[in-house]
Amino acid sequence: MASIPAARHALAHAPWSPAAWRDTTFVASGVPLQFAGWAVLGSVWPFWTPVNVTPIMLVLAGSCAVTLLVLRPLTRWQRERCWAMLGLRIPPMPGFDDGRAWEVLRGLRKPEVWRVLRYHLIVGPLVAIGGLGTIGAWAGGVILACTGAYSWALPGTSPLSSVDKGHAVRAGVLSVVGVLLLIAAPWVAAGVRRLDVRAAVALLGPDRAAELERRVEDLVEKRASVVDAADIERRRIERDLHDGAQQRLVSLALNLGLARATLTGVPDEAMRVIVEAHEEAKEALTELRDLIRGLHPAVLEDRGLDAALSGIAARVPLEVRLRVEVEPRASSTVEAVAYFVVSEALTNVVKHARATAVDVAAIREGERLRLTVADDGAGGADPSRGTGLTGLARRVRSVDGTFRIVSPAGGPTTVTVELPCAL
């Protein structure tokens, strides 16, 4: 059964197959185009050969200028040849195909121009030699394979005449060689076609490395925009809750407290309802304040990371030794990420570490903000166990930061985060 695909592959490259004629037509049509660059570059020299240095330099400069001017038409024709004969679309190249035709003369500093020159002056002519070899294989194969058909008409003195028996053997050998050439020609055409296509895609189309680099830059910009938009949206929600729902809850709690303190002579059941409502309102107000602080603390925007981290440290029921050196301030997005990283890390320490003290440091070193949270707890923290560290690392990576945790069993645990400040 394994021989069936091999047989199909061989039939696909038979001399009478459509693929063989398509490949041959393709490589043959490329020969004049692929030699055109050198033809244009040397078009002046057969008609006038200057002998002095200055005319030679002028003629050389003129030939190079004309070659640069015809690069776009030659490149466009090569792309159209690939599309018309193979259905292969080679996209235009940014930095080469845009702008006016004579702007190519000023584009020698662009890598795209040198890639196109490399195709038309080096790779293309080499592929064209392969195309000439393909044409020669077909022509030679036909001529030699048909030796027996015309050898009888040759004069008896000819080395290929069939009059002499030795000459007939020689003609038979040449016919066999011709048949072998006809069998090999489609394979040669297919190989040259593959080389031509790879060279055209690599040198006449957009540079994949540059294209990927542009796409990565575009994705980084879009991700930064999304992160900034999310931060702006958190601020808006924080302001709406602070100025709306929180104020209403404060007013409700004040009214209930006033009623609780001043109303007399009301039934015990009604007073109990007022007291419970007052306590619920105060608890809801506390939870709302914690929610607002978790969305985006106002102190972070007003007074910076130092004051915000000091507020976190003051609320932690552990000894927190805080060191903050963040001048000049980073962007608001980076400060928000730093704030939430320290807040979440301290929450994990309180919940899981069984620690007695925590060291927190936020130090700006050039264009990097380095955060360190180290506790003296039991250690053994593992991001895969859902302790919040996975979300913490994801938040850090959203701004191209790095996250590292060292937490051997028995402690201590150290969380190190580096955030880029130039956002």
From TrEMBL:
- Any one GO MF annotation of this record: protein dimerization activity
The UniProt transmembrane annotation reads 26-48, 54-71, 119-152, 172-190
> Which GO terms of the cellular component aspect does the record hold?
membrane
The record's section on InterPro entries has: HATPase_C_sf, HATPase_dom, Put_sensor_dom, Sensor_HK_TwoCompSys, Sig_transdc_His_kin_sub3_dim/P
* Reactions mediated catalytically: ATP + protein L-histidine = ADP + protein N-phospho-L-histidine
User: Keywords, A to Z?
Assistant: ATP-binding, Kinase, Membrane, Nucleotide-binding, Phosphoprotein, Transferase, Transmembrane, Transmembrane helix, Two-component regulatory system
Q: Name one Pfam family in it.
A: HATPase_c
Indicate the segments forming the Histidine kinase/HSP90-like ATPase domain, all copies.
333-423
* Enzyme Commission code: 2.7.13.3
* UniProt-recorded name of the protein: histidine kinase
- Native species: Actinomadura physcomitrii
Lineage, broadest ranks: Bacteria, Bacillati, Actinomycetota, Actinomycetes, Streptosporangiales
